[in-house]
Amino acid sequence: MTAIVAVLNKHAVAIAADSAVTMGDTHKVVNSANKIFTLSKYHPVAVMTYSSAAFMGVPWDIIIKEYRKELGKDSFDKLKDYVKDFITFLHKRHFFCDEQTQRDYLMLQLDSFVKSCREELSFQNGVAQEKQTEKDLRQKFVSYKKYLENSEKCTEFKKYTFADFKKYAYATIVEYSEKEKLNLSDDLCEAFFYYLSANIETSISTGLVFVGYGEKEIYPSLYPLNISLAVDKRLRYSYDKRSIVEISDRGCATSIIPFAQIDVTQTIVRGINPTFQDILYKVINNTASNVLKLIAEQLTKNDSTKVMAPVIQRLDTSPLTKQAIELIRQEMFSRYTEPLLQTVIGLDKEDMANMAESFISLTSLVRRMQPGEETVGGPVDVAVISKGDGFIWINRKHYFKPELNASFFQNYFRNEQYGKNSI
Q: Does the pLDDT at position 352 exceed 70?
């Protein structure tokens, strides 16, 4: 797991990331991962990664550095143009893997989908189910299809039809069904298609957070992207639209955006732990229902009022509870979030870097005190990106001693394969 954060204002953007990574399906955690990369050697743009450290078996650091090499001295007017060009690059390099590897990862995602359906069936309505029949699984696939068919689709799957997918993947799904002894190929194929098409996170997805400046931008931007795999020459990716930040004069002037393990940062920014907030909202809903039930019980004790008891108990309390929840959110924002953001507006680069590092360090401390794996930890890498100074490392770990490897830094800009607009 991971914790990364970006702090933005008009001066710059400070980014920070921990170094912890879980090795495969084991419970072993090592603290040596790099999660912040410059996207260009010459321009103020960078990318942070979280969740899966590889794209269909290829480490993301290799892919990002290959893109940086091809980009050379080229640049784009806006940060979002770098994101589009990066996606084009993945297509151009055939997703860094062959067709068989893509099908293998499709099978891996299919297996993950079926297992998640089985897990949901095995514990329905808060009660463990001992047996699962093929009929139960078929109904689960049908319900998934109904739930997802009208949901927002991933960018490159909006014009991709079920007929197209079936032509490409049906043989793979039949192979999987035979191996698992399931006579559900058609239902599974349809449900899996809508699962792949929907704009939802999957078990093998990676978060890429692009941050920095385009040539014509004087304030920083942040564009988060979620990428999982390639299917039939289509890249399964989507933008996290809720987390896109564009600092401007008339719009957003500052922002604090955490990714991956976000609970500690959100607790500081919002003034309340997200888990406790959910509990509070649940208690409000339950209390409203219990009050109606209590009133109805009292009414039934009197012959003249018991006819009103069913009417009272059927009253819809959702508008009232929604209003109460919204009032709590507004109060928390005005008391905690807004004053903090007003402070961030005026921070200089050094203080922004310290703030970003502190969010990660506090998350690491909380994980260390909790039972279970320390999924956030190790050295904290910190960088600041500004329009005038470009990308500046504040803290950075090396797997080698910099003082013994002067040639690495001397060669950083040598033998660069410049882009098409370079001399």
A: yes
| Gyration radius from the chain CA atoms | 25
The DSSP call for residue 304 is T
Model pTM above 0.85: yes
Report whether 65 contacts 102 (CB < 8 A): no
Angle between helices 185-197 and 134-148 (to 10 degrees): 30
For residue 209, the SS3 value is: strand
The CA distances from residue 132 to 102, 118, 125, 185, 187, in Å, are 31, 8, 15, 17, 16
Q: Sketch the domain layout of the chain as residue ranges.
A: 3-97+203-262+373-410, 99-197, 263-345
Q: What is the pLDDT of residues 360-391, one digit of tens each?
A: 999 999 999 988 788 899 999 999 999 999 99
Average pLDDT over residues 66-73: 95
| Residue 45 burial class via C-beta count within 10 angstroms: exposed 0-12, middle 13-18, buried 19 and up | buried
Q: Which CATH architecture has domain 3-97+203-262+373-410?
A: 4-Layer Sandwich (3.60)
Sequence-distant (≥ 6) Cβ neighbours of residue 27 within 8 angstroms? 373
Q: Is the dihedral of CA 38, 39, 40, 45 positive or negative?
A: negative
**In 3-state terms, what secondary structure has residue 354?**
helix
